[in-house]
Amino acid sequence: MPNSLAGGQFPNPTLDAIDLEDRNPRNAGTSSSIPGLEEGSTDPWAFPQLKNTGQLKEVSMASRLRKVVIGFLKLCGLLGSLYFFICSLDILSSAFQLLGSKMAGDIFKDNVVLSNPVAGLVIGVLVTVLVQSSSTSSSIVVSMVASKLLTVQVSVPIIMGVNVGTSITSTLVSMAQSGDRDEFQRAFSGSAVHGIFNWLTVLVLLPLECATAALERLSELALGAASLQPGGQAPDILKALTQPFTHLIIQLDSSVITGSATSNNTNSSLIKQWCGVREETPQGSNEECSIFNPCTENSTASPEESKVPCNHLFVGTGLTDLAVGFILLAGSLLVLCTCLVLIVKLLNSVLQGRIAQAVRTVINADFPFPFGWLSGYLAILVGAGLTFLLQSSSVFTAAIVPLMGVGVINLERAYPLFLGSNIGTTTTALLAALASPADMMLFAVQVALIHFFFNLAGILLWYLVPVLRLPIPLAKRFGDLTAQYRWVAIVYLLFTFLLLPLAAFGLSLAGGSVLAAVGGPLVGLVLLIILVNILQRHRPSWLPHCLRSWAWLPLWLHSLEPWDRLVTGCCPCRACKSNSSMASKVANCYENPEIIASQQL
Protein backbone atom coordinates (compact mmCIF):
# COMPACT_ATOMS: atom_id res chain seq x y z
CA MET A 1 0.00 0.00 0.00
CA PRO A 2 1.42 3.44 -0.79
CA ASN A 3 2.55 5.69 1.97
CA SER A 4 0.37 8.57 0.85
CA LEU A 5 -2.93 9.11 -0.91
CA ALA A 6 -3.38 9.91 -4.57
CA GLY A 7 -1.89 13.24 -5.49
CA GLY A 8 0.07 13.43 -2.27
CA GLN A 9 -2.52 15.70 -0.70
CA PHE A 10 -2.81 13.74 2.51
CA PRO A 11 0.40 12.77 4.27
CA ASN A 12 0.53 9.48 6.07
CA PRO A 13 -0.49 10.33 9.68
CA THR A 14 1.46 8.76 12.46
CA LEU A 15 -0.01 7.20 15.56
CA ASP A 16 1.42 9.98 17.69
CA ALA A 17 -0.28 12.62 15.57
CA ILE A 18 -3.73 11.16 15.76
CA ASP A 19 -3.34 9.46 19.17
CA LEU A 20 -4.59 6.05 18.07
CA GLU A 21 -4.02 2.71 19.68
CA ASP A 22 -1.93 0.28 17.67
CA ARG A 23 -4.20 -2.01 15.66
CA ASN A 24 -1.33 -4.19 14.39
CA PRO A 25 -2.17 -7.89 14.91
CA ARG A 26 1.34 -8.43 16.26
CA ASN A 27 0.42 -6.35 19.30
CA ALA A 28 -2.81 -8.19 20.04
CA GLY A 29 -3.12 -9.15 23.66
CA THR A 30 -1.15 -6.19 24.99
CA SER A 31 -2.55 -3.53 27.22
CA SER A 32 -3.08 -1.23 24.25
CA SER A 33 -5.77 -3.53 22.90
CA ILE A 34 -7.99 -2.95 25.90
CA PRO A 35 -10.64 -0.30 25.19
CA GLY A 36 -10.27 2.77 27.32
CA LEU A 37 -6.85 1.77 28.65
CA GLU A 38 -4.80 4.91 28.18
CA GLU A 39 -1.11 5.36 28.83
CA GLY A 40 -0.39 5.34 32.52
CA SER A 41 -3.57 3.51 33.49
CA THR A 42 -3.68 0.01 34.94
CA ASP A 43 -4.79 -3.16 33.28
CA PRO A 44 -8.28 -4.01 34.66
CA TRP A 45 -7.63 -7.72 34.13
CA ALA A 46 -4.59 -7.61 36.40
CA PHE A 47 -5.12 -7.90 40.14
CA PRO A 48 -5.67 -4.54 41.87
CA GLN A 49 -2.56 -3.07 43.42
CA LEU A 50 -2.14 -4.09 47.03
CA LYS A 51 -2.15 -1.35 49.57
CA ASN A 52 1.18 -0.72 51.23
CA THR A 53 1.02 -1.91 54.79
CA GLY A 54 4.31 -0.26 55.70
CA GLN A 55 7.04 -1.64 57.89
CA LEU A 56 6.33 -3.33 61.15
CA LYS A 57 6.46 -0.94 64.05
CA GLU A 58 5.73 -1.04 67.72
CA VAL A 59 2.09 -0.53 68.64
CA SER A 60 0.48 -0.37 72.02
CA MET A 61 -1.66 -3.12 73.47
CA ALA A 62 -4.73 -0.90 73.13
CA SER A 63 -4.09 -0.44 69.41
CA ARG A 64 -3.66 -4.18 68.92
CA LEU A 65 -6.84 -4.88 70.83
CA ARG A 66 -8.70 -2.29 68.79
CA LYS A 67 -7.49 -3.86 65.54
CA VAL A 68 -8.57 -7.30 66.72
CA VAL A 69 -12.03 -6.02 67.69
CA ILE A 70 -12.43 -4.16 64.40
CA GLY A 71 -11.32 -7.24 62.45
CA PHE A 72 -13.79 -9.43 64.36
CA LEU A 73 -16.62 -6.97 63.72
CA LYS A 74 -15.75 -6.85 60.02
CA LEU A 75 -15.79 -10.65 59.88
CA CYS A 76 -19.18 -10.75 61.61
CA GLY A 77 -20.49 -8.08 59.24
CA LEU A 78 -19.20 -10.03 56.25
CA LEU A 79 -20.81 -13.29 57.40
CA GLY A 80 -24.06 -11.51 58.26
CA SER A 81 -24.17 -9.75 54.89
CA LEU A 82 -23.46 -13.05 53.14
CA TYR A 83 -26.27 -14.76 55.09
CA PHE A 84 -28.87 -12.13 54.21
CA PHE A 85 -27.54 -12.06 50.63
CA ILE A 86 -28.29 -15.78 50.29
CA CYS A 87 -31.68 -15.34 51.97
CA SER A 88 -32.54 -12.51 49.57
CA LEU A 89 -31.69 -14.79 46.63
CA ASP A 90 -34.12 -17.38 48.02
CA ILE A 91 -36.86 -14.77 48.46
CA LEU A 92 -36.14 -13.36 44.99
CA SER A 93 -36.68 -16.84 43.57
CA SER A 94 -40.00 -17.06 45.46
CA ALA A 95 -41.02 -13.66 44.07
CA PHE A 96 -40.35 -14.76 40.50
CA GLN A 97 -42.27 -17.97 41.11
CA LEU A 98 -45.26 -15.98 42.36
CA LEU A 99 -45.10 -13.68 39.35
CA GLY A 100 -44.50 -16.26 36.65
CA SER A 101 -45.38 -19.73 37.89
CA LYS A 102 -48.84 -19.88 36.33
CA MET A 103 -47.43 -18.54 33.07
CA ALA A 104 -44.69 -21.16 33.22
CA GLY A 105 -47.25 -23.91 33.69
CA ASP A 106 -49.33 -22.60 30.79
CA ILE A 107 -46.24 -22.50 28.54
CA PHE A 108 -45.51 -26.16 29.25
CA LYS A 109 -49.06 -27.20 28.35
CA ASP A 110 -48.70 -26.64 24.60
CA ASN A 111 -47.26 -29.97 23.49
CA VAL A 112 -47.44 -29.04 19.78
CA VAL A 113 -45.03 -26.15 20.32
CA LEU A 114 -42.74 -28.24 22.53
CA SER A 115 -42.22 -30.74 19.72
CA ASN A 116 -40.04 -28.12 17.99
CA PRO A 117 -36.50 -28.39 19.45
CA VAL A 118 -35.80 -24.64 19.17
CA ALA A 119 -39.11 -23.84 20.83
CA GLY A 120 -38.34 -26.33 23.60
CA LEU A 121 -34.95 -24.68 24.15
CA VAL A 122 -36.33 -21.14 24.48
CA ILE A 123 -39.21 -22.38 26.66
CA GLY A 124 -36.67 -23.90 29.04
CA VAL A 125 -34.84 -20.56 29.16
CA LEU A 126 -38.03 -18.54 29.70
CA VAL A 127 -39.44 -20.80 32.39
CA THR A 128 -36.15 -20.84 34.34
CA VAL A 129 -35.96 -17.04 34.11
CA LEU A 130 -39.57 -16.77 35.32
CA VAL A 131 -39.26 -19.11 38.30
CA GLN A 132 -35.55 -18.36 38.99
CA SER A 133 -34.90 -21.97 39.88
CA SER A 134 -33.46 -24.69 37.68
CA SER A 135 -34.60 -27.30 40.22
CA THR A 136 -38.24 -26.17 39.86
CA SER A 137 -38.01 -26.20 36.06
CA SER A 138 -36.44 -29.67 36.09
CA SER A 139 -39.12 -30.98 38.45
CA ILE A 140 -41.82 -29.71 36.06
CA VAL A 141 -40.15 -31.55 33.18
CA VAL A 142 -39.85 -34.75 35.24
CA SER A 143 -43.51 -34.61 36.24
CA MET A 144 -44.66 -34.08 32.66
CA VAL A 145 -42.48 -36.95 31.38
CA ALA A 146 -43.78 -39.23 34.14
CA SER A 147 -47.37 -38.20 33.32
CA LYS A 148 -46.82 -39.09 29.63
CA LEU A 149 -47.41 -35.45 28.64
CA LEU A 150 -43.87 -35.20 27.28
CA THR A 151 -41.53 -37.74 25.77
CA VAL A 152 -37.88 -37.95 26.82
CA GLN A 153 -36.85 -36.83 23.33
CA VAL A 154 -38.89 -33.64 23.63
CA SER A 155 -37.57 -32.94 27.12
CA VAL A 156 -33.88 -32.82 26.04
CA PRO A 157 -33.99 -29.30 24.48
CA ILE A 158 -35.97 -28.05 27.49
CA ILE A 159 -33.23 -29.31 29.83
CA MET A 160 -30.67 -27.46 27.70
CA GLY A 161 -32.72 -24.28 28.04
CA VAL A 162 -32.95 -24.77 31.80
CA ASN A 163 -29.17 -24.96 31.95
CA VAL A 164 -28.87 -21.67 30.02
CA GLY A 165 -31.52 -19.82 32.03
CA THR A 166 -29.90 -20.48 35.39
CA SER A 167 -26.96 -18.17 34.54
CA ILE A 168 -29.17 -15.06 34.77
CA THR A 169 -28.74 -14.88 38.56
CA SER A 170 -25.00 -14.19 38.40
CA THR A 171 -25.62 -11.60 35.67
CA LEU A 172 -28.09 -9.76 37.89
CA VAL A 173 -25.62 -9.83 40.78
CA SER A 174 -22.83 -8.37 38.62
CA MET A 175 -25.00 -5.36 37.77
CA ALA A 176 -24.72 -4.18 41.38
CA GLN A 177 -21.00 -3.52 40.83
CA SER A 178 -21.53 -1.16 37.90
CA GLY A 179 -20.45 1.85 39.98
CA ASP A 180 -16.74 1.03 39.63
CA ARG A 181 -15.52 0.50 36.07
CA ASP A 182 -12.78 -2.05 36.73
CA GLU A 183 -14.85 -4.04 39.25
CA PHE A 184 -17.79 -4.13 36.87
CA GLN A 185 -15.53 -5.23 34.02
CA ARG A 186 -14.22 -8.20 35.99
CA ALA A 187 -17.57 -9.10 37.59
CA PHE A 188 -19.59 -8.93 34.38
CA SER A 189 -17.03 -10.95 32.44
CA GLY A 190 -17.28 -13.61 35.16
CA SER A 191 -21.05 -13.79 34.82
CA ALA A 192 -20.82 -13.70 31.02
CA VAL A 193 -18.35 -16.59 30.80
CA HIS A 194 -20.96 -18.87 32.37
CA GLY A 195 -23.66 -17.86 29.90
CA ILE A 196 -21.29 -18.00 26.91
CA PHE A 197 -20.25 -21.54 27.86
CA ASN A 198 -23.88 -22.66 28.09
CA TRP A 199 -24.84 -21.07 24.76
CA LEU A 200 -21.82 -22.47 22.92
CA THR A 201 -22.59 -25.93 24.28
CA VAL A 202 -26.20 -25.61 23.13
CA LEU A 203 -25.14 -24.47 19.64
CA VAL A 204 -23.08 -27.66 19.24
CA LEU A 205 -25.20 -30.24 21.05
CA LEU A 206 -28.72 -29.20 20.01
CA PRO A 207 -28.22 -29.94 16.27
CA LEU A 208 -26.30 -33.09 17.19
CA GLU A 209 -29.13 -34.23 19.46
CA CYS A 210 -31.76 -33.52 16.79
CA ALA A 211 -29.79 -35.58 14.27
CA THR A 212 -28.61 -38.51 16.39
CA ALA A 213 -30.42 -38.37 19.80
CA ALA A 214 -27.01 -38.93 21.39
CA LEU A 215 -27.86 -37.71 24.90
CA GLU A 216 -31.11 -39.68 25.01
CA ARG A 217 -29.41 -42.91 23.92
CA LEU A 218 -26.49 -42.37 26.29
CA SER A 219 -28.86 -41.86 29.21
CA GLU A 220 -30.76 -45.03 28.25
CA LEU A 221 -27.51 -47.02 28.20
CA ALA A 222 -26.48 -45.66 31.60
CA LEU A 223 -29.94 -46.34 32.97
CA GLY A 224 -29.89 -49.91 31.69
CA ALA A 225 -26.41 -50.62 33.05
CA ALA A 226 -27.23 -49.36 36.56
CA SER A 227 -29.34 -51.18 39.12
CA LEU A 228 -31.39 -48.39 40.61
CA GLN A 229 -32.40 -48.39 44.22
CA PRO A 230 -34.29 -45.60 45.97
CA GLY A 231 -31.88 -43.35 47.81
CA GLY A 232 -32.06 -40.68 50.45
CA GLN A 233 -32.41 -36.98 50.02
CA ALA A 234 -29.41 -34.85 49.20
CA PRO A 235 -28.05 -32.87 52.16
CA ASP A 236 -29.78 -29.50 52.56
CA ILE A 237 -27.03 -27.73 54.51
CA LEU A 238 -27.75 -24.29 53.09
CA LYS A 239 -31.52 -24.51 53.45
CA ALA A 240 -31.14 -25.69 57.01
CA LEU A 241 -29.44 -22.35 57.74
CA THR A 242 -31.66 -20.04 55.67
CA GLN A 243 -35.13 -21.57 56.09
CA PRO A 244 -35.62 -20.39 59.69
CA PHE A 245 -35.50 -16.82 58.34
CA THR A 246 -37.03 -17.19 54.86
CA HIS A 247 -39.97 -19.24 56.16
CA LEU A 248 -40.90 -16.29 58.36
CA ILE A 249 -41.24 -14.19 55.18
CA ILE A 250 -42.93 -16.54 52.71
CA GLN A 251 -43.59 -20.24 52.11
CA LEU A 252 -44.65 -21.60 48.73
CA ASP A 253 -46.30 -24.81 47.61
CA SER A 254 -44.16 -25.89 44.65
CA SER A 255 -46.58 -28.72 43.79
CA VAL A 256 -49.01 -26.08 42.51
CA ILE A 257 -46.57 -25.17 39.70
CA THR A 258 -46.22 -28.81 38.67
CA GLY A 259 -49.98 -29.24 38.92
CA SER A 260 -50.50 -26.23 36.67
CA ALA A 261 -48.27 -27.79 34.01
CA THR A 262 -49.94 -31.22 34.23
CA SER A 263 -53.49 -29.74 34.32
CA ASN A 264 -54.16 -31.14 37.77
CA ASN A 265 -54.40 -27.87 39.65
CA THR A 266 -54.66 -24.41 38.08
CA ASN A 267 -56.65 -22.18 40.43
CA SER A 268 -54.92 -22.71 43.78
CA SER A 269 -52.74 -20.03 45.31
CA LEU A 270 -49.04 -20.70 45.37
CA ILE A 271 -48.75 -19.21 48.88
CA LYS A 272 -48.85 -21.98 51.44
CA GLN A 273 -51.50 -21.48 54.13
CA TRP A 274 -51.35 -24.80 56.02
CA CYS A 275 -48.12 -26.39 57.15
CA GLY A 276 -49.26 -29.55 58.93
CA VAL A 277 -52.05 -31.48 60.66
CA ARG A 278 -52.67 -31.71 64.39
CA GLU A 279 -52.44 -35.16 65.92
CA GLU A 280 -55.87 -36.23 67.17
CA THR A 281 -56.28 -38.01 70.52
CA PRO A 282 -58.31 -41.21 70.24
CA GLN A 283 -61.72 -41.16 71.90
CA GLY A 284 -62.01 -42.95 75.19
CA SER A 285 -58.39 -42.54 76.12
CA ASN A 286 -57.90 -42.98 79.86
CA GLU A 287 -55.29 -40.23 79.89
CA GLU A 288 -57.63 -37.53 78.58
CA CYS A 289 -61.11 -38.69 79.65
CA SER A 290 -62.14 -38.41 83.26
CA ILE A 291 -65.06 -37.33 85.47
CA PHE A 292 -64.02 -33.69 85.18
CA ASN A 293 -63.25 -33.95 81.45
CA PRO A 294 -65.73 -36.39 79.89
CA CYS A 295 -65.32 -37.58 76.34
CA THR A 296 -68.16 -36.80 73.98
CA GLU A 297 -69.07 -38.40 70.69
CA ASN A 298 -68.78 -35.10 68.78
CA SER A 299 -65.24 -34.28 69.94
CA THR A 300 -63.69 -35.15 66.59
CA ALA A 301 -62.33 -31.98 64.92
CA SER A 302 -63.25 -31.11 61.36
CA PRO A 303 -60.58 -31.36 58.64
CA GLU A 304 -60.19 -27.56 58.58
CA GLU A 305 -59.77 -27.36 62.34
CA SER A 306 -57.15 -30.12 62.38
CA LYS A 307 -54.83 -28.20 60.03
CA VAL A 308 -51.92 -26.21 61.44
CA PRO A 309 -51.58 -22.76 59.84
CA CYS A 310 -48.20 -21.50 58.65
CA ASN A 311 -46.42 -18.71 60.46
CA HIS A 312 -45.03 -16.64 57.61
CA LEU A 313 -45.78 -12.98 56.91
CA PHE A 314 -48.48 -13.41 54.25
CA VAL A 315 -50.71 -16.02 55.92
CA GLY A 316 -54.36 -15.02 55.81
CA THR A 317 -53.80 -11.83 53.82
CA GLY A 318 -56.21 -10.98 51.05
CA LEU A 319 -53.40 -10.16 48.64
CA THR A 320 -53.14 -12.03 45.36
CA ASP A 321 -50.06 -13.98 44.30
CA LEU A 322 -49.19 -11.19 41.86
CA ALA A 323 -49.30 -8.49 44.55
CA VAL A 324 -47.23 -10.54 47.00
CA GLY A 325 -44.76 -11.31 44.20
CA PHE A 326 -44.20 -7.62 43.44
CA ILE A 327 -43.77 -6.82 47.15
CA LEU A 328 -41.20 -9.60 47.59
CA LEU A 329 -39.45 -8.65 44.35
CA ALA A 330 -38.93 -5.05 45.46
CA GLY A 331 -37.88 -6.00 48.99
CA SER A 332 -35.53 -8.80 47.95
CA LEU A 333 -33.82 -6.66 45.29
CA LEU A 334 -33.29 -3.89 47.86
CA VAL A 335 -31.78 -6.30 50.40
CA LEU A 336 -29.76 -8.05 47.69
CA CYS A 337 -28.13 -4.85 46.41
CA THR A 338 -27.51 -3.56 49.96
CA CYS A 339 -25.86 -6.79 51.07
CA LEU A 340 -23.81 -6.99 47.89
CA VAL A 341 -22.49 -3.44 48.37
CA LEU A 342 -21.61 -4.26 51.99
CA ILE A 343 -19.87 -7.48 50.95
CA VAL A 344 -17.77 -5.68 48.34
CA LYS A 345 -16.84 -2.87 50.75
CA LEU A 346 -15.91 -5.28 53.52
CA LEU A 347 -13.90 -7.48 51.17
CA ASN A 348 -11.98 -4.45 49.95
CA SER A 349 -11.36 -3.47 53.57
CA VAL A 350 -10.34 -6.92 54.81
CA LEU A 351 -8.35 -8.17 51.81
CA GLN A 352 -5.40 -5.81 52.01
CA GLY A 353 -1.67 -6.26 52.01
CA ARG A 354 -0.35 -9.66 53.00
CA ILE A 355 -3.85 -11.08 53.61
CA ALA A 356 -4.94 -10.31 50.05
CA GLN A 357 -1.69 -11.67 48.66
CA ALA A 358 -2.08 -14.90 50.62
CA VAL A 359 -5.72 -15.40 49.58
CA ARG A 360 -5.00 -14.73 45.92
CA THR A 361 -1.97 -16.99 45.97
CA VAL A 362 -3.93 -19.90 47.45
CA ILE A 363 -7.01 -19.54 45.23
CA ASN A 364 -5.20 -18.90 41.95
CA ALA A 365 -2.17 -21.13 42.57
CA ASP A 366 -1.19 -23.84 40.11
CA PHE A 367 0.55 -27.14 40.69
CA PRO A 368 4.29 -27.13 39.93
CA PHE A 369 5.46 -28.09 36.47
CA PRO A 370 4.61 -30.44 34.79
CA PHE A 371 1.34 -30.88 36.70
CA GLY A 372 0.02 -27.34 36.31
CA TRP A 373 -2.76 -28.54 34.01
CA LEU A 374 -4.32 -30.41 36.94
CA SER A 375 -5.16 -27.18 38.78
CA GLY A 376 -8.17 -26.43 36.58
CA TYR A 377 -9.59 -29.92 37.00
CA LEU A 378 -9.18 -29.62 40.76
CA ALA A 379 -11.15 -26.35 40.57
CA ILE A 380 -13.90 -28.21 38.69
CA LEU A 381 -14.09 -30.76 41.52
CA VAL A 382 -14.12 -27.97 44.14
CA GLY A 383 -16.94 -26.18 42.32
CA ALA A 384 -18.95 -29.39 42.02
CA GLY A 385 -18.43 -30.26 45.69
CA LEU A 386 -19.35 -26.81 46.99
CA THR A 387 -22.46 -26.66 44.79
CA PHE A 388 -23.47 -30.10 46.04
CA LEU A 389 -23.10 -28.93 49.64
CA LEU A 390 -24.90 -25.62 49.06
CA GLN A 391 -27.66 -27.31 47.04
CA SER A 392 -27.80 -24.30 44.71
CA SER A 393 -25.70 -23.44 41.68
CA SER A 394 -27.19 -19.93 41.61
CA VAL A 395 -25.95 -19.17 45.12
CA PHE A 396 -22.47 -20.50 44.35
CA THR A 397 -22.06 -18.55 41.10
CA ALA A 398 -23.56 -15.42 42.65
CA ALA A 399 -20.98 -15.64 45.45
CA ILE A 400 -18.07 -16.03 43.00
CA VAL A 401 -18.96 -12.93 40.95
CA PRO A 402 -18.29 -10.32 43.72
CA LEU A 403 -14.99 -12.03 44.50
CA MET A 404 -14.02 -11.62 40.87
CA GLY A 405 -15.04 -7.97 40.99
CA VAL A 406 -12.72 -7.14 43.89
CA GLY A 407 -9.90 -9.08 42.24
CA VAL A 408 -9.62 -12.10 44.53
CA ILE A 409 -10.34 -14.68 41.81
CA ASN A 410 -9.21 -14.30 38.22
CA LEU A 411 -11.28 -15.29 35.20
CA GLU A 412 -9.08 -18.27 34.33
CA ARG A 413 -9.71 -19.80 37.76
CA ALA A 414 -13.40 -18.84 37.97
CA TYR A 415 -14.17 -20.55 34.65
CA PRO A 416 -13.53 -24.13 35.91
CA LEU A 417 -15.36 -23.27 39.14
CA PHE A 418 -18.45 -22.40 37.08
CA LEU A 419 -18.10 -25.63 35.09
CA GLY A 420 -17.88 -27.59 38.33
CA SER A 421 -21.00 -25.80 39.55
CA ASN A 422 -22.87 -27.10 36.49
CA ILE A 423 -21.78 -30.64 37.35
CA GLY A 424 -22.62 -30.21 41.04
CA THR A 425 -26.19 -29.17 40.40
CA THR A 426 -26.75 -32.26 38.21
CA THR A 427 -25.51 -34.62 40.91
CA THR A 428 -27.93 -32.97 43.31
CA ALA A 429 -30.74 -33.54 40.82
CA LEU A 430 -29.64 -37.15 40.42
CA LEU A 431 -29.88 -37.80 44.16
CA ALA A 432 -33.24 -36.05 44.27
CA ALA A 433 -34.41 -38.26 41.40
CA LEU A 434 -33.42 -41.40 43.32
CA ALA A 435 -35.59 -40.18 46.21
CA SER A 436 -38.66 -39.64 43.99
CA PRO A 437 -41.69 -42.00 44.02
CA ALA A 438 -41.30 -45.39 42.40
CA ASP A 439 -43.58 -44.60 39.45
CA MET A 440 -41.54 -41.50 38.57
CA MET A 441 -38.04 -42.61 39.49
CA LEU A 442 -36.95 -43.98 36.09
CA PHE A 443 -38.06 -40.85 34.23
CA ALA A 444 -36.55 -38.56 36.87
CA VAL A 445 -33.21 -40.35 36.76
CA GLN A 446 -33.10 -40.30 32.95
CA VAL A 447 -33.78 -36.54 32.85
CA ALA A 448 -31.08 -35.99 35.50
CA LEU A 449 -28.63 -38.12 33.49
CA ILE A 450 -29.35 -36.10 30.34
CA HIS A 451 -28.60 -32.92 32.29
CA PHE A 452 -25.35 -34.44 33.59
CA PHE A 453 -24.14 -35.68 30.19
CA PHE A 454 -24.96 -32.30 28.62
CA ASN A 455 -22.70 -30.44 31.06
CA LEU A 456 -20.01 -33.13 30.84
CA ALA A 457 -20.00 -32.84 27.05
CA GLY A 458 -19.66 -29.07 27.41
CA ILE A 459 -16.55 -29.52 29.55
CA LEU A 460 -15.07 -31.93 26.99
CA LEU A 461 -15.77 -29.42 24.22
CA TRP A 462 -14.73 -26.13 25.79
CA TYR A 463 -12.20 -27.02 28.50
CA LEU A 464 -10.35 -30.26 27.77
CA VAL A 465 -8.26 -28.69 24.97
CA PRO A 466 -6.75 -25.35 26.12
CA VAL A 467 -7.00 -23.83 22.63
CA LEU A 468 -10.77 -24.41 22.61
CA ARG A 469 -11.43 -22.51 25.85
CA LEU A 470 -13.22 -19.88 23.79
CA PRO A 471 -15.55 -18.60 26.55
CA ILE A 472 -12.59 -16.98 28.36
CA PRO A 473 -11.41 -14.61 25.57
CA LEU A 474 -15.01 -13.95 24.49
CA ALA A 475 -15.97 -13.02 28.05
CA LYS A 476 -12.92 -10.73 28.34
CA ARG A 477 -13.81 -8.88 25.16
CA PHE A 478 -17.41 -8.63 26.29
CA GLY A 479 -16.28 -7.32 29.67
CA ASP A 480 -14.15 -4.67 27.93
CA LEU A 481 -17.17 -3.61 25.88
CA THR A 482 -19.56 -3.42 28.82
CA ALA A 483 -17.06 -1.47 30.91
CA GLN A 484 -16.79 1.06 28.09
CA TYR A 485 -20.56 1.16 27.41
CA ARG A 486 -22.28 0.04 30.59
CA TRP A 487 -25.76 0.05 29.08
CA VAL A 488 -24.67 -2.87 26.86
CA ALA A 489 -24.96 -5.10 29.94
CA ILE A 490 -28.66 -4.28 30.28
CA VAL A 491 -29.20 -4.84 26.55
CA TYR A 492 -27.42 -8.21 26.83
CA LEU A 493 -29.58 -9.18 29.79
CA LEU A 494 -32.84 -8.25 28.08
CA PHE A 495 -32.03 -9.71 24.66
CA THR A 496 -30.36 -12.94 25.79
CA PHE A 497 -32.83 -14.01 28.47
CA LEU A 498 -36.08 -12.33 27.43
CA LEU A 499 -36.53 -10.72 24.01
CA LEU A 500 -34.77 -13.28 21.80
CA PRO A 501 -36.40 -16.29 23.55
CA LEU A 502 -39.79 -14.54 23.30
CA ALA A 503 -39.24 -13.83 19.60
CA ALA A 504 -38.24 -17.44 18.92
CA PHE A 505 -41.21 -18.68 20.93
CA GLY A 506 -43.59 -16.40 18.98
CA LEU A 507 -42.21 -17.65 15.65
CA SER A 508 -42.52 -21.25 16.81
CA LEU A 509 -46.21 -20.68 17.47
CA ALA A 510 -46.62 -19.96 13.76
CA GLY A 511 -44.99 -23.27 12.88
CA GLY A 512 -41.58 -24.79 12.33
CA SER A 513 -41.45 -23.66 8.67
CA VAL A 514 -41.96 -20.01 9.65
CA LEU A 515 -39.28 -20.29 12.34
CA ALA A 516 -36.83 -21.79 9.84
CA ALA A 517 -37.68 -19.24 7.13
CA VAL A 518 -37.10 -16.27 9.46
CA GLY A 519 -34.44 -17.60 11.81
CA GLY A 520 -32.31 -19.40 9.22
CA PRO A 521 -31.30 -16.29 7.19
CA LEU A 522 -30.74 -14.28 10.38
CA VAL A 523 -28.42 -16.92 11.82
CA GLY A 524 -26.58 -17.17 8.51
CA LEU A 525 -26.13 -13.38 8.39
CA VAL A 526 -24.76 -13.30 11.93
CA LEU A 527 -22.28 -16.09 11.15
CA LEU A 528 -21.18 -14.28 7.98
CA ILE A 529 -20.57 -11.02 9.91
CA ILE A 530 -18.54 -12.90 12.54
CA LEU A 531 -16.44 -14.54 9.80
CA VAL A 532 -15.77 -11.20 8.06
CA ASN A 533 -14.75 -9.59 11.35
CA ILE A 534 -12.30 -12.41 12.08
CA LEU A 535 -10.78 -12.08 8.61
CA GLN A 536 -10.58 -8.29 8.96
CA ARG A 537 -8.54 -8.73 12.11
CA HIS A 538 -6.26 -11.59 11.07
CA ARG A 539 -6.31 -12.05 7.26
CA PRO A 540 -7.56 -8.81 5.63
CA SER A 541 -5.79 -9.61 2.35
CA TRP A 542 -8.20 -12.49 1.80
CA LEU A 543 -11.18 -10.11 1.64
CA PRO A 544 -12.29 -7.83 -1.19
CA HIS A 545 -11.20 -4.23 -0.79
CA CYS A 546 -14.71 -3.07 0.14
CA LEU A 547 -14.97 -5.58 3.01
CA ARG A 548 -11.65 -4.78 4.64
CA SER A 549 -13.43 -2.24 6.83
CA TRP A 550 -17.01 -1.28 7.64
CA ALA A 551 -16.46 2.43 6.99
CA TRP A 552 -18.81 2.38 3.98
CA LEU A 553 -21.75 1.54 6.26
CA PRO A 554 -23.71 4.21 8.14
CA LEU A 555 -22.10 5.11 11.44
CA TRP A 556 -24.89 3.59 13.57
CA LEU A 557 -24.37 0.21 11.89
CA HIS A 558 -20.69 -0.21 12.76
CA SER A 559 -20.17 1.93 15.85
CA LEU A 560 -21.83 2.15 19.26
CA GLU A 561 -21.09 5.86 19.60
CA PRO A 562 -24.45 7.08 18.19
CA TRP A 563 -26.30 4.59 20.37
CA ASP A 564 -24.22 5.64 23.35
CA ARG A 565 -25.13 9.30 22.87
CA LEU A 566 -28.78 8.32 22.60
CA VAL A 567 -28.76 6.14 25.73
CA THR A 568 -26.72 8.52 27.87
CA GLY A 569 -28.97 11.37 26.79
CA CYS A 570 -32.05 9.46 27.94
CA CYS A 571 -30.38 8.04 31.08
CA PRO A 572 -28.16 10.66 32.74
CA CYS A 573 -27.32 8.45 35.74
CA ARG A 574 -23.71 7.49 36.42
CA ALA A 575 -24.31 3.78 35.81
CA CYS A 576 -25.27 4.46 32.18
CA LYS A 577 -22.33 6.75 31.47
CA SER A 578 -19.71 5.27 29.17
CA ASN A 579 -16.00 5.68 29.25
CA SER A 580 -16.04 7.03 25.73
CA SER A 581 -13.28 9.64 25.70
CA MET A 582 -10.78 7.22 24.19
CA ALA A 583 -13.42 5.32 22.26
CA SER A 584 -14.75 8.41 20.50
CA LYS A 585 -11.21 9.45 19.60
CA VAL A 586 -10.46 6.06 18.08
CA ALA A 587 -13.86 5.82 16.41
CA ASN A 588 -13.69 9.27 14.82
CA CYS A 589 -10.22 8.65 13.44
CA TYR A 590 -10.97 5.22 12.04
CA GLU A 591 -14.24 6.44 10.55
CA ASN A 592 -12.17 8.73 8.29
CA PRO A 593 -11.69 6.90 4.96
CA GLU A 594 -8.41 8.73 4.27
CA ILE A 595 -6.89 7.51 7.52
CA ILE A 596 -8.22 4.00 6.94
CA ALA A 597 -6.66 3.94 3.50
CA SER A 598 -3.34 5.21 4.85
CA GLN A 599 -2.93 2.45 7.42
CA GLN A 600 -1.14 -0.71 6.40
CA LEU A 601 -3.17 -3.91 6.52
TrEMBL record:
The keyword rRNA processing does not apply. One of its GO terms (molecular function) is sodium:phosphate symporter activity. Signal peptide: none annotated. It is found in: Apical cell membrane. Pfam families: Na_Pi_cotrans. One of its GO terms (biological process) is intracellular phosphate ion homeostasis. Residues 1-22 are annotated as: Disordered. It is a multi-pass membrane protein. It comes from the Eukaryota. GO terms for cellular component: apical plasma membrane; brush border; vesicle. The chain crosses the membrane at residues 68-92, 112-131, 152-176, 196-215, 322-344, 377-403, 415-435, 441-465, 485-507, 513-535. InterPro entries: Na/Pi_transpt. Keywords: Cell membrane, Ion transport, Membrane, Sodium, Sodium transport, Symport, Transmembrane, Transmembrane helix, Transport. Belongs to the SLC34A transporter family. This is Sodium-dependent phosphate transport protein 2C isoform X3. It comes from Cricetulus griseus (Chinese hamster). The gene is Slc34a3.
